[in-house]
Amino acid sequence: MICVPDARKALRRAVATRWAGSPWEAGVRASLVILGLAVAAVILLPGTQAGDGGPSRTLITLLGQKHGIIVDEGSVHWIDPPGSGAFSDWFVSRAAVVGRTDEDALRDLYLVRVRLAPSGRALAASPTNLTNSFNASDEAFVARGSLLLLGTLTGNGYAALELIDFGGENAELTRSWPLVERLKNSITNYQQTGQWKGIQRTRYELSVPSTSIDMGFEDGVVLASLDAGTIRIRPGTPEPVQGGELAEAVESTKAMTGHVGWIVDTVRAVPMIGKEKIGWLEAKFYNLKDVFMRSFYSIAGEGYAAREIEEDMDLAGEPYVFELPEGMKEMDITWPP
Question: Residue 251's beta-bridge partner residues?
Answer without folding.
Answer: 202
